[in-house]
Amino acid sequence: MSETNPAATAPVTADAAPHRYTAAVAAEIEARWQDFWDAEGTYAAPNPKGDLAGDPELVARPKKFIMDMFPYPSGAGLHVGHPLGYIATDVFARFQRMTGHNVLHTLGFDAFGLPAEQYAVQTGTHPRVSTEANMKNMVSQLRRLGLGHDKRRSFATIDPEYYKWTQWIFLQIFNSWYDDEAKQARPISELVAQFDSGERAVPGGGTWSALSEAERADLLGEYRLAYASDAPVNWCPGLGTVLANEEVTADGRSERGNFPVFKSKLRQWNMRITAYADRLLDDLDQLDWPEAIKLQQRNWIGRSEGARVDFPVDGERITVFTTRPDTLFGATYMVLAPEHPLVEKFTPAAWPEGTRDAWTGGHATPTEAVAAYRAQAASKSDVERQAEAKDKTGVFIGAYATNPVNGEQVPVFVADYVLMGYGTGAIMAVPAGDQRDFEFARAFELPIRCIVEPTDGRGTDPSTWESAFASYDAKIMNSSHDEVSLDGLGVVEAKERITEWLECTGAGAGTVNFRLRDWLFSRQRYWGEPFPIVYDEDGIAHPLPASMLPLELPEVEDYSPRTFDPDDADTKPETPLSRNEDWVHVTLDLGDGRGPRRYRRETNTMPNWAGSCWYELRYLDPHNSEQLVDPEIEQYWMGPREGLPHGGVDLYVGGAEHAVLHLLYARFWSKVLFDLGHVSSAEPFHKLFNQGMIQAYVYRDSRGIAVPAAEVEERDGAYFHRGEKVSRLLGKMGKSLKNAVTPDEICAEYGADTLRLYEMAMGPLDVSRPWDTRAVVGQFRLLQRLWRNVVDENTGRLSVADVAETDVDADTLRALHKAIDGVRQDLEGMRFNTAIAKVTELNNHLTKVGGPVPRPVAERLVLLVAPLAPHVAEELWRKLGHTSSVVHEDFPVADPAYVVDETVTCVVQIKGKVKARLEVSPSVSEEDLEKAALADEKVVAALGGAGIRKVIVRAPKLVNIVPA
User: Fold this and answer.
1) What is the pLDDT of residues 302-330, one digit of tens each?
2) Is residue 273 domain-shared with residue 322, that is, in the same domain?
3) pTM, whole model, 2 decimals?
4) How many CA atoms lie within 13 A of 236 on its CB side?
5) Are 312 and 707 in contact (CB under 8 A)?
């Protein structure tokens, strides 16, 4: 560190007291120290090797890797709610540095995404131009807060040198398959070797060598962890792209923009995240995450045990998954989701003889009926389709399936209450035991067979029932055939017996099913990472060699996907990249021995989640152009160790809204990279902390439109805007709600240290809290009192007393060491609000005592404040005569002798009522405490000579006397 002293150049501020701590003084101090920290590289975190290697002694310290969730650089800039988590991690990181840790704390930008592209569509501005301008503004705003980031490690996902490695990871996933026996990903070349040697049979017989190149590609596509398929997707015309299930809200609209989402069939890239479902579930147990987030992930993954059952149809089969195979005898019809790929295959040209009119939907042929119904279902959200109160709709497809347990022919319907995204997209309908099936059966006059003996007195004739009956405690009935009988069995025993029968007959098997679907990974947009994939003349996908990465985005004239009717489900995407002919069709030599060939590039782009799936690794080794990350560096910062069995970031702070998006996707990528030997950490984030939200009052006029909060007046408990009464409701803070307060405003009026203190003091970090600009001044006054306890406001010179600690009065030493002990514990536990309260208490004590503050107390007070208000602490530390930065000073340690109270108050009760209070030693024995209580004058008077039946002593704080 430099020996220069920026504090010496501080100007004198004209004021009633010329050296008072004011907003102007704060601004000057803060800007000067931020420049100093940048120039000196104060927050640089050394790696154990490479171009970031630093002081070996510092590297040898215990490490702490502290991260914030990737921010998106919005054009609206920051409001005071945004920095809450960033300030919290900064305080924690500063504390860790001062307690002997090598701390890695930095911040980059998740810069691909739809907002910049939407802006480009509207204005013609290149997304990079607007995004970089937004980043520049955000960097300026964040810098003003004094965040201690290692700026050498910062980057944006739109940097080609970054997304080169995003593309490289995609290729690792594409060139991998999941080995169910080994329970891990393996290179696809090993699977090819198994097929080639005959170790693994080629489906359908034959040999690997006899397959054509296209047949081999199709076969491997069934195994690859990244694969393209024609499948039902969430199509959002309003955004011009498809969306993953996790990006669709519960009411069937896009999370971004709130546009309607439809079901459509398109060829898209997918990630086989379902292969990792068990591991994603099991490893949650060893992560230090909020239980609410773990529960959300468990529910989203949705593991359930049951059986797979095959229903034959014309020589083929419909496979269903059921958690209640014991009810198989009660299956009287089947339902396919409208998007199910077998619907077309099993739909005949004409209705079978005797088809009921109620089953046809009024259409002349099954083909017409199915097509019309599919169109109707595509316009509904999943929530609408599954609404309990809605009338059940559907049509018969004209085919029958065979119930394997009794040979009955059951009709097959399509109905929108069955979703392709759950189970197999097909159900065996047991109307006696499922309310939706019951209502559908009543609507279409289908049989309802009682197979679980009712225990509620309704009887066994379903024609008399008003609803279905389901129970796990009842006995099975009407479930017997030639080869198997379940009658009289309980549910558990019946499930075991029917599953054994299914496996013995080849009609099914016990299995585990997951709610989790494969991750839809294609987007029909421009502003995202290009896929490093090209197609030959036969449509076979080929990965680009690593030497051709990064594949950069080309220039395009029009950023808009040409499908922008948000309410038209029939529109199809035309991607912006597809219109750049010179980029799409290229001649390349892929290094596969075939020489130059003509190829067509993939014209979809990756989703905006791709870059945030691995950014923690780039922070470790941001300038490595040869490797994803140096193994030694990755092991040092993220490798497994005691307490971190799967490795990962030591602390990750961000919002709870990413539970089943970013957090699930990042875990998946980490596990693939771990399996393939690229990293030592199987989990990206060991400890997760969800900060609360800073809220603000939203004021709305009679039309429900938000009005500027700054213009609202309060009169007699009511609120008015320009004379009109408005409503007030606590909610989010944001530009659209006209209640945003920017950090720039607060910094200008009070300084960044005041803003930092206020946001940390508002309440527990994980709880939402309302913003109140009027309350900010309280923390500003704390800093003014702190300043006065060190600096003479009239002369600007130190006002501390140069005395030894032995000359400090006992009460002040007790106050100091109690504060040190409490603040240390609070900062370690991220209880920043109570830490500030303890600092305030100590500062107030010193103010009350009066006179010059003893130097040993003043110095430790400044060190206590340093993580919370770093600028003023740095300034005061230099004024106290130190030449090194306070950032790397040791955090104070409390003397236990002063932490323990000299006396504690013991309450003496008689018949449960307090009669006396005694000041006693904390270590007083029960015997001595009882004697002291019985000898107290007030106790003697209260007893009035009465005998004593029992004395209950809880040393040192309670004595309870029970008179005779």
Assistant:
1) 999 999 999 999 889 999 999 999 999 99
2) no
3) 0.86
4) 25
5) no
